């Protein structure tokens, strides 16, 4: 089916009502069935000053509540008149359900039916039932037996039996149930969209020695951005000067403000509570952390998990069952009342809607606690995996390597070697490179001019200094790939590796000129995290590393919960181990943070990236830990498993309750009105139960 896009020459958007802090927009363009209301409301809610957005596609209106009388209206109209292709769904979706006014009207109409003259009750009820009958007929022709056909059949049978009050009362209850069902889904979506914090539309930067205001789309990497009290940090960057207390709750879920000072990295979306910062922009616009989070969340509103697809299939298959039971009861008893009572029972509403409500509520609570789940599939998979693989550096360890030893050969000094290695590593984002650069800065060394830099992932760096080739990397890279002997430092390398240190070899013009050693530290929470993960159902914990065996096993010796350890791996080796475990029938999650982890992150059933991970790793992962610790991993696992239990309970409650009602209705124990009331009440109760899914378990046992 071809999608209909809203274009400027379509019906105009009008402001039909406005009071301070609130206005309503209306247009026939908003009734376009291909338009995604979740996307549109998220697009508007992301504007600074917007407090709440409500969209009703049935009436073609949007209500915006805001805290200022700024140029919001013009900005919103501009956005709505230029909607991107992403605002339209690949499949036509149904319009929104009834609003509270419609529910009240139908309830009042049902209540007055018995008091109308008998001659008016029939025409009044037929007119009232017409939308339901038309919807049922359209659905039967276009989609087959669905819940709309059941609803229409109950109304038609009541009208045929001239039981007008029952028919109208059932219609009122169906309307009320539809309202609560849509409200539950909308509230779950709103929870998720609340993680989309408004983006700054302008920022202060230093230009030619003066502070100037520029629009956010004019910001460039390298700009010096000024952020004061009450302002949102609009870029990802490095603090150059100043100190401040930063509330980063919208990014990391951490409730307590963090202290930012020169040398610290700050993320877009944080709010400065006290102080002032000068920040060098490292990422701007669509590349910032908040922009990426927003994109993930927009996509997550549309994704369906395997459980959701399965529940939809099951619900659709149960509709013909209800219809068949109703026909069977009528054939056996000749009672249209019993048949109508059976048809008033529908499995599909609770089964279909409980899943998105529970999943999106869980995703919201995970986000508030510092774990970003990219869609329902990530949540479902995280709850079902049984094997967890860690890349060592930056996950189980801090990844903040410190340079501890420099063994300079020939006539080189330590400073000369360090400057040479730092120059080659200057633009490489690996933890080893960062440690070398940090050590050079601490010694105030001037780096030599470097050219023709070539990064060999998981091996090292090749660069030219004064037309001389410099190599910095692992022994495998220097000795096996480049053919440079490292035998002269065998004794020293053995000793350093026995101390659990990582080795870095430096070669110049085809000869080894230095051996460097670095040490990483184990995360303090690593041991408790592994124990908690085992308790949560993981049956196998694996550690992988590209480092040499000795430092890897020095870390493994401190983590007794590990079942398997591999060292000296290339990126493709890590992905191969993931594939091997999957072929053994295991469901695998992989935790990493580097560019070289991306193949494994993509190969795993669930890829999990640490907060300080490289951009490529963050994009490849389905789960991002927004705090720099492992506790979020345990919390996310608990939320995922709790959500699975909620969905299981909701499903079988819906099946059990409605099956019981079918039996009662078919045997004539309950009337049509009672059957409809009990069915709709149970549906609302199940949705309320799904909406209470908060995953309140602690990250680590106290």
TrEMBL record:
Main location: membrane
Pfam families given in the database record: E1-E2_ATPase, HMA_2, Hydrolase
InterPro entries reported for this sequence: ATPase_P-typ_cyto_dom_N, ATPase_P-typ_P_site, ATPase_P-typ_transduc_dom_A_sf, ATPase_P-type_domA, Cation_Transport_ATPase_IB, HAD-like_sf, HAD_sf, P-typ_ATPase_IB
EC identifiers of the protein: 7.2.2.12
All copies of domain P-type ATPase A, residue ranges: 201-297
Catalytic activity: Zn(2+)(in) + ATP + H2O = Zn(2+)(out) + ADP + phosphate + H(+)
Subcellular location: Cell membrane; Membrane
Group of enzyme by EC: translocase
Keywords: ATP-binding, Cell membrane, Membrane, Metal-binding, Nucleotide-binding, Translocase, Transmembrane, Transmembrane helix
Sequence similarity: Belongs to the cation transport ATPase (P-type) (TC 3.A.3) family. Type IB subfamily.
Protein name as catalogued: P-type Zn(2+) transporter
């Amino acid at each position: 089916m071809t999608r209909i896009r809203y274009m400027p020459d379509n019906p105009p958007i009008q402001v039909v009502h406005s009071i301070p802090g609130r206005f309503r927009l209306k247009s026939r363009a908003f009734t376009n069935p291909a338009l995604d209301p979740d996307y549109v409301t998220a697009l508007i809610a992301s504007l600074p000053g917007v407090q709440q957005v409500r969209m009703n596609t049935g009436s073609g209106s949007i209500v915006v509540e805001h805290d200022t009388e700024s140029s919001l209206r013009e900005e919103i109209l501009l956005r709505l008149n230029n909607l991107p292709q992403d605002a339209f769904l690949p499949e036509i979706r149904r319009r929104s359900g009834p609003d509270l006014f419609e529910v009240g009207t139908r309830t009042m109409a049902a209540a007055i039916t018995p008091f109308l003259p008998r001659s008016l009750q029939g025409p009044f009820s037929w007119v009232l039932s017409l939308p339901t009958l038309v919807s049922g007929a359209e659905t039967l022709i276009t989609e087959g037996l669905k819940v709309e056909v059941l609803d229409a059949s109950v109304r038609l049978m009541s009208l045929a039996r001239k039981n007008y009050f029952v028919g109208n009362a059932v219609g009122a209850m169906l309307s009320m149930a539809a309202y609560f069902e849509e409200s539950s889904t909308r509230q779950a979506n709103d929870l998720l969209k609340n993680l989309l914090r408004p983006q700054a539309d302008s920022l202060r930067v230093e230009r030619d020695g003066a502070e100037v205001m520029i629009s956010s789309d004019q910001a460039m990497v390298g700009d010096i951005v000024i952020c004061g009290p009450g302002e949102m940090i609009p870029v990802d960057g490095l603090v150059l000067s100043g100190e401040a207390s930063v509330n980063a709750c919208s990014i990391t879920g951490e409730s307590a403000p963090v202290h930012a000072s020169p040398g610290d990295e700050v993320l877009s979306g944080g709010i400065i509570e006290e102080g002032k910062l000068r920040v060098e922009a490292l990422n701007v616009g669509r590349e910032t952390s908040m922009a990426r989070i927003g994109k993930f969340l927009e996509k997550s509103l549309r994704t369906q998990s395997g459980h959701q697809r399965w529940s939809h299939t099951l619900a659709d298959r149960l509709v013909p069952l209800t219809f068949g039971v109703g026909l069977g009861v009528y054939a056996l008893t000749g009672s249209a009342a019993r048949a109508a009572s059976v048809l008033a029972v529908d499995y599909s509403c609770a089964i279909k809607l409980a899943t998105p409500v529970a999943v999106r509520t869980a995703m919201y609570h995970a986000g508030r606690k510092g774990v970003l789940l990219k869609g329902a599939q990530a949540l479902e998979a995280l709850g079902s995996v049984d094997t967890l693989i860690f890349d060592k550096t930056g996950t189980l360890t801090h990844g903040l390597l410190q340079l501890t030893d420099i063994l300079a050969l020939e006539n080189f000094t330590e400073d000369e070697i360090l400057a040479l290695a730092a120059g080659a590593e200057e633009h490489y984002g690996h933890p080893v490179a960062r440690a070398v650069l940090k050590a050079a800065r601490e010694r105030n060394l001037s780096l030599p001019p470097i050219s023709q830099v070539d990064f060999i992932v998981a091996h090292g760096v090749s660069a030219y200094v004064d037309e001389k080739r410099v190599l910095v990397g692992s022994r495998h890279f220097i000795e096996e790939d480049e053919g440079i002997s490292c035998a002269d430092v065998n004794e020293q390398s053995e000793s350093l590796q026995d101390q659990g240190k990582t080795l870095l070899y430096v070669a110049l013009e085809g000869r080894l000129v230095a051996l460097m050693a670095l040490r990483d530290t184990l995360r303090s929470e690593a041991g408790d995290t592994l124990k908690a993960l085992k308790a949560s159902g993981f049956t196998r914990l694996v550690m992988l590393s590209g480092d040499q065996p000795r430092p890897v096993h020095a870390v493994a010796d401190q983590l007794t919960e590990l079942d398997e350890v591999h060292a000296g791996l290339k990126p493709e080796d890590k992905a191969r181990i993931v594939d091997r475990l999957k072929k053994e029938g295991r469901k695998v999650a992989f935790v990493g943070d580097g560019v070289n982890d991306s193949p494994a992150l993509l190969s795993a059933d669930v890829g999990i990236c640490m907060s300080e991970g490289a951009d490529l790793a963050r994009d490849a992962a389905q789960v991002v830990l927004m705090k720099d610790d492992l506790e979020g991993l345990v919390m996310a696992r608990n939320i995922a498993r709790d959500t699975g239990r909620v969905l299981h309970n909701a499903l079988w409650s819906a099946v059990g309750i409605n099956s019981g009602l079918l039996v009662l209705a078919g045997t004539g124990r309950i009337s049509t009105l009672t059957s409809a009331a009990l069915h709709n009440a149970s549906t609302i109760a199940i949705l309320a139960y799904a909406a209470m899914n908060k995953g309140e378990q602690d990250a680590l046992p106290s």
